[in-house]
Amino acid sequence: MRTFTIGGDLEVRRLGFGAMRITGDGIWGPPDDPDEAKRLLRRVVELDVNLIDTADSYGPEVSENLIAEALHPYPDGLVIATKGGLRRTGPGEWPRDAHPKRLKECCEGSLRRLRLDRIDVYQLHAPDPEVPLEDSLGALRELQEEGKIRHIGVSNVSEEELERARAVVDVVTVQNRYNLADRASEGVLDACEPAGIGFIPWFPLATGDLARPGGPLDELARAHDATPSQLALAWLLARSPNMLPIPGTSSIEHFEENLTAERISLDGDEVERLAAAA
What we know:
Layout: E1 3-6, E2 10-13, E3 17-18, H1 34-46, E4 51-53, H2 62-71, E5 79-84, H3 100-114, E6 119-124, H4 133-145, E7 149-155, H5 159-166, E8 171-177, H6 186-195, E9 198-202, H7 216-223, H8 228-239, H9 252-259, H10 268-277
């Protein structure tokens, strides 16, 4: 299956685009070439990728602004998912702040920057240990009731936190770190499948020692005339029908290379072989 329907009404191509790396070093400030970043975003849409994931903290604000500058007015069917709940205090610094008032401010800012009346998928970027999860999600529920958010997702959650979140709101996506070499969120993924929740793996291309010359990923990649990164994405797509990888890059060439992973068909034995090797 090449598509997945988020929240029962947003059909997206399963291989999306993560817009974190169209910013400066440390995900801080503007990119070296903003025009090239906008060309990349337009190429994403030209190739019919219709799920773009971003966050107010990417830059901060830079990624959302570039998306609007490059793509607004948006084509029909484009789903922009963004996130709130982190602050930026410097390059590589991501302190959490998911107080209800702050989340509402984050959402209002994203609406302005993205030039939207309603955000299709708004995600809590991470639970805040200083704020009850129920309070943070209650604020998002209020924004949803006001018509400013269409669907709600969560990110960086445990199985227990996902269960608590679902008691407050209808969770349509979970975005956790997950890749072939790091499957700590396996239980969260398994909880998403029967519930029809989309699973968005961040850092999807990490392969570690698996991609070493002569290693299992390298060998199988050569057998499929693919790169290890392409095979890692193909493995994610084969792992679960709910999987929505969003590999990020600042390069059009790299984006197009990632997209060809959809053409790689792994059989069940290959999927298990790679999983066992990791």
